[in-house]
Design brief:
mainly alpha, 68% helix
Length: 533
C-alpha cells in the first residue's frame, strides 16, 4: 500500500476497496512454516491414530458424557467409542496445524476436516454435510445480504462520513468517532469481516489525511486509527449476541444446557457495558501508552483533507428514499431483536424476514447481483461447525477436561474463582493460537459447561463469562479475518499489533475478573462468596 503511482489519489475511497488490497509477501520464515504445515499435519494425524496411546481415552466413564454422546456410547460400545475419540483428537490436531501454518487455504482445511470426520467414522455423512445449513450459517448469509443493502444504498458510508466530520476534530476524537460507528454497525451486522469491508475505505482516507499512507510512511496516528478500528470491530461485536455468528452459537450452546434461551436483551445488558469500557480503555492505551500521539500527529497533514471527506458526503446528495427504506428495515430488525424475550422469534428468523423484504422486487432495495457473499469464508465456518458436531458426538472436551482436572488434583471443593480464572484465562489467550472464533466457541464453551456441571456451579456462572471473551481476536494477523484484512493495509508491523493486542488481552482478562466480583454478581451471573476477599 505504500508504493503509490502518480495517479494514486490518497483521498479517493475507491482506491481502498478490499479487492484492491495486495496480499503481503510472506517472509522466509512464514514460507518455511507453510511448507512444513502439510507434512507435520499428516505425521501428527497418523501418530495419534496409530502410535500414541492416550490413557484418558482408554477407559471412558460414561457417567461424565452428555446425553447425545452417552446414547452413542451405548449403541457402539466402549471400544468403538474410544476409537471415535482418538480419531476426533487426530483430525482436530491436524486441522489446527493446517489452520495455523496456512499450508493450504482455510476453506480447504475445512473441507479436508469435514471429509476426514466422515472417513474416520466420527460423524455420519448426513450430520457432517448438514452443517452448511446450520442456522448460524444462514444468519451469516443473511447478514451479508443486509450489509450489501447498507453498502448499495450508502447508509453506512453516509453515517460514517457524517459522524467523522461532526465529531472528529482531531486524531484522538476521530478514533472515538469510529468507536461509535462500530457499535452501531455491530447492532445490525453479524459478520465482522463485512464491517471491516464497509469501514476500510473511510479510515484509510482518514489515516492519509493525518500523514499515514502505510509502509515507510507509517506514523502513530495511522497505527491508532487502523489498529483501534480492528480492536473496536471485534470488541463491539462482543456487546451483542448478534454481533457475530460465534456469539449466537455460544448462546445456543448455553441455552441448550440450561433449558432456556439467552435473549438479545440479556446478553446486551451484561456484555455491552463491559465491551464499551474495554474499548475506552483501549483508546487510552493506544493514544497515551503504546502509540502516543505527538502534537504534530494530532493534526491533519494533507491540506483540505477533511474537506475531501466533506465533498464526498456532499456528493452523495440528500438522503434518498432507498436509504430511508433501509433505515426502516434495520430499525424494525433491531426492535425485534431487542424485544426477543417477549415474542420469542430467533435472530436468524428476524434477519430472514429483513433479507426477504430487502430483496423483494419493486419493494426491496437490493438485487441478488448486488449481494456480495464470501462463500470461501462460509465454507471455512462450515468446517468449524462440523468440528463442533464431532465434539458433541464424542464429548471429547468433557472427557479431556475431566481427565485434566482429575490429574491436577482438583476436588469437588475447588473454589469458584479458581475455575473462573482457569477457564476465562484459557479462553482469552487461546485466541493467540486459534484462527476461528467459531472453533474456540465450540471447544471452550462446552468445556465451561462441563466444568460447571462437574463442580456443582450454575452453568451460566462460568459459561457466559467465557462466551463474552469470544471476540478477543486482534493480537496477530491470523487470529481473525478482519485482522488478516487490515494487516494488508501495511499501516502497522507484526510487532505493533502484538504489542497493543497483548496488553489489551491482559487488561480485558483483568476486567472480566473484576466484573465477576462486581457487575456480573449484581446480575446474578456469578455467585456470591468468590473467596477472593
Amino acid at each position: 500500500m505504500s508504493d503509490h503511482s502518480n495517479n494514486f489519489d490518497l483521498l479517493d475511497m475507491r482506491q481502498y476497496r478490499m479487492e484492491k488490497l495486495q496480499n503481503k509477501a510472506k517472509s522466509r520464515t512464514e514460507k518455511l512454516i507453510a511448507l512444513s504445515g502439510g507434512p507435520l499435519a499428516i505425521m501428527t494425524f497418523l501418530s495419534i491414530m496409530f502410535l500414541i496411546k492416550f490413557p484418558f481415552l482408554q477407559n471412558i466413564d460414561p457417567s461424565i458424557l452428555g446425553k447425545a454422546s452417552r446414547s452413542i456410547f451405548d449403541q457402539v460400545g466402549a471400544i468403538e467409542f474410544t476409537k471415535m475419540n482418538i480419531a476426533m483428537l487426530a483430525v482436530f490436531t491436524a486441522a489446527i496445524i493446517l489452520w495455523i501454518t496456512e499450508a493450504v487455504p482455510n476453506y480447504l482445511t475445512s473441507l479436508i476436516l469435514i471429509i476426514a470426520l466422515v472417513l474416520t467414522g466420527v460423524l455420519p455423512e448426513e450430520v457432517a454435510y448438514a452443517q452448511l445449513g446450520h442456522k448460524v450459517m444462514w444468519l451469516n448469509i443473511l447478514s451479508f445480504i443486509l450489509a450489501s443493502m447498507l453498502v448499495t444504498t450508502g447508509v453506512a458510508k453516509r453515517f460514517a462520513l457524517w459522524f467523522i466530520l461532526r465529531f472528529g476534530k482531531k486524531a484522538s476524537s476521530i478514533i472515538l468517532s469510529f468507536m461509535v460507528i462500530n457499535i452501531v454497525l455491530s447492532l445490525f451486522i453479524s459478520a465482522t469481516t463485512a464491517k471491516a469491508a464497509i469501514l476500510l475505505p473511510i479510515f484509510m482516507v482518514v489515516a492519509a489525511v493525518y500523514g499515514a499512507t502505510g509502509g515507510k510512511n507509517r506514523n502513530n496516528a495511522g497505527r491508532n486509527i487502523v489498529l483501534q478500528n480492528l480492536f473496536q470491530i471485534n470488541i463491539a461485536a462482543g456487546g451483542f449476541v448478534t454481533g457475530s455468528g460465534a456469539n449466537l452459537i455460544a448462546a445456543s450452546l448455553i441455552g441448550g444446557a440450561i433449558g432456556s434461551d439467552i435473549f438479545f436483551s440479556d446478553w446486551m445488558a451484561a456484555a455491552f457495558p463491559v465491551a464499551l469500557g474495554i474499548m475506552l480503555i483501549g483508546w487510552l492505551v493506544g493514544i497515551k501508552l503504546v502509540f502516543p500521539l505527538s502534537p504534530d500527529e494530532k493534526m491533519p497533514k494533507i491540506k483540505g483533507g477533511m474537506e475531501k471527506l466533506r465533498l464526498e458526503l456532499k456528493k452523495m446528495g440528500p438522503v434518498s428514499f432507498q436509504e430511508i427504506k433501509s433505515i426502516i428495515i434495520f430499525s424494525g430488525i433491531l426492535i425485534l431483536w431487542v424485544t426477543d424475550r417477549f415474542h420469542g422469534v430467533s435472530p436468524t428468523a428476524v434477519a430472514f424476514v429483513g433479507a426477504i423484504i430487502a430483496l423483494l422486487p419493486g419493494i426491496g432495495i437490493v438485487k441478488w447481483g448486488d449481494v456480495d457473499i464470501p462463500w470461501h469464508l462460509l465454507l471455512f465456518s462450515a468446517g468449524a461447525y462440523t468440528l463442533g458436531a464431532g465434539f458433541k458426538t464424542t464429548d471429547f472436551p468433557s472427557i479431556a477436561i475431566n481427565a485434566l482436572f482429575d490429574n491436577l488434583g482438583f476436588g469437588n471443593s475447588t473454589p469458584f474463582w479458581v475455575l473462573y480464572l482457569i477457564l476465562t484465562g484459557t479462553m482469552i489467550f487461546s485466541s493467540l493460537i486459534f484462527q476461528s472464533k467459531t472453533m474456540r466457541t465450540l471447544i471452550f464453551v462446552p468445556i465451561a459447561i462441563g466444568v460447571a456441571n462437574k463442580f456443582g456451579f450454575d452453568i451460566i456462572s462460568l459459561a457466559l463469562p467465557v462466551a463474552f471473551l469470544i471476540e478477543h481476536v486482534y493480537v496477530l494477523p491470523f487470529n481473525s479475518k478482519p485482522a488478516a484484512l487490515l494487516y494488508l493495509t501495511d499501516h502497522y508491523s507484526l510487532t505493533d499489533t502484538f504489542k497493543f493486542g497483548i496488553i489489551m488481552l491482559f487488561i480485558s482478562w483483568g476486567v472480566s475478573i473484576i466484573m465477576a466480583m462486581t457487575y456480573f454478581r449484581l446480575l446474578n451471573i456469578t455467585p456470591d462468596g468468590l473467596g477472593i476477599f
